[in-house]
Design brief:
heterodimer, A: 289 residues, alpha/beta, six-stranded mixed sheet, four-stranded antiparallel sheet, 11 helices, elongated, B: 444 residues, 15 helices
Chain lengths: 289, 444
């Protein structure tokens, strides 16, 4: 499977934040969950991809095309949704649709009408008076109505209620199921993406901590309770993250699959229990470490 | 009638840059008066900008009313603090800044420093205009109307607000010459001002409560149409045509207001007042038409447009807007054919577009407030150059000179390069609201 998006060694320096060096790979047709705490660098990474700011280093390619040299061709493939998009200047929903459709030869009026009905947004409604959730839905309509091969959703569920969230993901799954579409969902809420993403990347403080197939990530890690005279020694080992410590009793996240317990013994630890991790445990432990 | 000091500090801390801008402009106007003794430049409208217009932005775009109402401060105290900011303090500020400019010019040799009587008149007229604008603000619609009464009240207030903004800026420029006309206009304004001040004193709290009502977004919406209209322009062509059409409409409306004001005041329509009649709509409408595009930069950048195309778009939009406004200027021929033929010259048009594009580039590169301050600082430089031209007895007509057109083209080129730089490199400009009002997660 060739890659829809490849990012190698991406860096961007701000006065109080440094992104990267960051590597990220999204295979074609995958639903990629780009997860990390607030301020981790998710939006900055997406912004760099879309040309909203200049990276200090690194290479970004979309379907083999350079994101700067071929920026128009790249954006002809990407539908983008973000709560930070402001459509107010178009006045009415119909105007925003009229404007955006002019940029996409593959725009499908019937699909757009279907989406408008599904999200209950009328073409004559004023954008300024739409609720926050409805504005996100409008962004989604504008991004989906031309059936882009790549869809980037940056925190799409912020401000959405449970029903709207369900509708969003239903539509998303439907659209991905019908077509060979690559989707990146960036979110700080793991629950939003873990059910749908077949591949995930964990980012923290501008660095990618973990990336891989969702099922593989869950299999790779175990949460192990153990006794250790030297908890600090455990902490220093690559592949081990100290999740909790109470005297000699420790709970550690180990990157050795089912063999994790045995592997810990070589560092002087005595495992007492070992259990598979949920994605949330994995994410929280890595985020806190 | 004690204002809440914390609220005062908060307001001025957030809008210091607008007051700095106002101070520079007003001091310049005061100095200009001291040189020319032209009442047409006295800044009654400056008070409206630094009070009710600023307050409207404050309450509309920052969801500030909700924050204010959650504070442990009495509602009446908040409302009346804002009344004082709007009606009294801004009138004092306007008068003080103008007086200071006039005094400095007088110290440097100008002959017509504002006297106490003129300053006092400016104080109470500015206060009266501010009070009228504040009262109108309390009736402005803040959400979708739910019934016909709300629709009518909101529509009427909106119309008065629009006319008031235009008239408060333009009225001083056409101040009548005869003492009798001056007295009657002053009397009418004062009466309206006093009534508005009393009414606004009581309406301020209602205004704050109204502003906390949700803009919309209830689940029980009326059935809407989901059918898309086909045909017509779309994409960039639609945007340019829309900007052009709206500029023409706004320009016609503003010209109507300006001419109506002049007629009511019995003001002369001649070569001295004509530049104002054209330049004011150009500046006001261009800003009105173009700032929203900047708030949508994130969306524009995500579309399949290259950085170069986007940089060009920010030259094309002002050009189209200003050309739309200029197209409506033949109306002026009804008043002064000679002036019109002198004024509407290609070099001047090119220079005007170049200047405005540069103004937009400044805002993209250094931010809206610093861009505006930068542009205001340009005004004294141009004034000095004009004075220098007189001193050096340079006689060429800037409206027809090829140098003016050349300078306009240079400005356009510089603006294009700056736009391109900002679009490619400045991540800040893609933040919501163009970083003008701060990061507002809920979209204003």
């Amino acid at each position: 499977m060739s890659n829809a998006i490849e990012i190698h060694g991406l860096t961007k320096n701000y006065s109080q934040f440094q992104l990267g060096p960051l590597d990220l790979t999204v295979p074609r047709g995958a639903i990629y969950g780009f997860v990390g705490p607030n301020g981790a660098g998710k939006t900055t990474t997406i912004d760099m991809l879309l040309g909203m700011g200049q990276p200090d280093g690194g290479l970004i390619t979309v379907d083999g095309l350079d994101h700067v040299r071929d920026e128009v061709a790249v954006k002809q493939m990407i539908g983008y949704v973000s709560p930070d998009l402001n459509f107010q200047m178009w006045g009415k929903v119909g105007n925003a649709i009229r404007f955006v459709k002019g940029f996409h030869a593959t725009w499908d009026d019937r699909h757009c009408e279907h989406l408008l009905k599904m999200f209950r947004i009328g073409v004559d409604e004023k954008i300024a008076t739409l609720s926050f959730g409805s504005k996100i839905k409008l962004a989604l309509i504008l991004a989906l109505a031309w059936r882009p091969p790549i869809l980037i959703l940056d925190e799409p569920t912020v401000g959405l209620d449970a029903v709207a969230r369900h509708e969003l993901f239903s539509e998303l799954l439907e659209s991905v199921g019908q077509e060979d579409r690559t989707v990146i969902i960036s979110s700080h809420a793991l629950a939003d993406v873990e059910r749908f993403a077949d591949r995930m990347g964990f980012i923290k403080n501008g660095r990618m901590l973990l990336e891989g197939e969702t099922a593989e990530l869950i299999q790779r890690y175990r949460m192990v309770d153990c006794q250790s005279n030297e908890p600090q020694r455990l902490k220093q080992q690559p592949g081990i993250v100290l999740a909790k410590q109470d005297g000699q009793r420790c709970r550690v996240l180990v990157d050795r699959g089912e063999d994790s317990g045995n592997w810990l013994k070589q560092f002087g630890a005595q495992p007492t229990a070992s259990a598979p991790v949920t994605l949330e445990e994995l994410f929280v432990t890595l985020a806190k470490a | 009638m004690q204002p809440n000091i914390l609220l005062l500090k908060d307001f001025y801390r957030r809008w210091w840059w607008a007051y700095l801008l106002g101070f520079l402009a007003l001091a310049g106007v005061g100095a200009g008066y001291a040189v020319s003794k032209s009442h047409s430049i006295l800044p009654i409208g400056g008070g409206a900008f630094l009070s009710a217009i600023l307050l409207a932005s404050d309450l509309n775009f920052r969801t500030n009313a909700r924050t204010l109402l959650s504070l442990p401060v009495r509602l009446t105290e908040i409302g009346r603090t804002y009344w004082l900011i709007c009606v009294l303090y801004s009138a004092l500020f306007v008068t003080g800044a103008t007086a200071l400019g006039s005094m400095i010019a007088a110290l440097l040799g100008a002959k017509h420093a504002l006297d106490t009587g003129e300053l006092f008149r400016m104080l109470y007229l500015t206060g009266a205009v501010n009070a009228i604008m504040l009262l109108t603000l309390t009736y402005l619609p803040h959400r979708q109307p739910e019934n016909t009464t709300e629709q009518l009240t909101g529509g009427f207030a909106g119309m008065v607000w629009g006319l008031g903004v235009g008239a408060s800026f333009s009225a001083p420029m056409f101040w009548p010459r005869s003492a009798q006309s001056q007295q009657s206009i002053t009397g009418i304004l004062l009466l309206a001002g006093v009534i508005s001040a009393i009414a606004a004193w009581h309406r301020c709290t209602v205004m704050l409560v109204n502003r906390t009502a949700p803009a919309a977004g209830t689940t029980s919406k009326k059935a809407s149409s989901y059918s898309l209209s086909t045909g017509g322009f779309s994409g960039l062509r639609w945007l340019l045509v829309r900007t052009f059409g709206q500029s023409i409409c706004f320009s016609l409306l503003m010209q109507f207001v300006l001419h109506l004001t002049m007629r009511l005041m019995g003001a002369p329509i001649n070569s001295a007042t004509m530049p104002t009649l054209i330049l004011f709509p150009v500046l006001f409408i261009s800003v009105l038409m173009l700032l929203p595009n900047m708030t949508a930069l994130r969306h524009l950048r995500s579309l399949p447009l290259s950085a170069k195309q986007l940089a060009l778009l920010f030259l094309a939009l002002p050009a189209v807007s200003i050309m739309g406004i200029f197209l409506t200027t033949p109306l002026y021929m009804l008043f002064d054919r000679e002036f019109f033929t002198h004024f509407l010259k290609l070099p001047l048009l090119v220079f005007g577009i170049g200047m405005f594009c540069l103004f937009l580039s400044l805002m993209l590169n250094i931010g809206v407030k610093w861009g505006m301050i930068g542009v205001v600082l340009v005004v004294p430089v141009i004034t000095m150059l004009a004075m220098l031209r007189q001193v050096l007895h340079i006689s060429w007509d800037i409206t027809t000179s090829p140098y003016t057109a050349f300078l306009g083209l240079v400005l356009l080129l510089v603006a294009y390069c700056w736009n391109l730089h900002a679009i490619r490199s400045r991540s800040k400009i893609y933040l919501p609201h163009f970083h003008l009002m701060g990061r507002n997660q809920f979209g204003g």
